[in-house]
Amino acid sequence: MKSNAGFLNSQNTHLGNRIFEKMLKDSGVDAFSGAQGRILYVLWENGTLSVSQICKLTSLANSTMTVMLDQMEDRGLISRTRNAKNRKQILVTLTENARMYKKEYDNISDRMNDLTYKGFSEEELSMYENMLLRIKANLEEYIEKGE
Fold it and tell me: For residues 31 and 38, is the Cβ–Cβ distance under 8 A?
């Protein structure tokens, strides 16, 4: 079956990222990028996490994560410590500085959702989210199998 869905999804992702970055900049949030905001989001939602947990929740590669966490630590957004029970594991915690950005980030996320899903019914949005979850599960299964 021929489909342009993958290409369209990629275009939508890039457009959305550009708009989100602009919204961050326009609101005066310059301490982190939109991509780093994903990391902050999972920490705001879950509290202290290991690097591997953050990778799983954001779908970012470990090599990308290391660079981003270095930048975020330099900006005073996160701190990293070794897990006392498992010295190989690095735990990432938000700083008070990062916690101050949550409300503005949430406002921008709400604006982005309003823009993205304008004209969608509740039923359409629910169906779309379910389809995205199925796609994500397919892709994660492929990675887990090491294919």
Answer: no
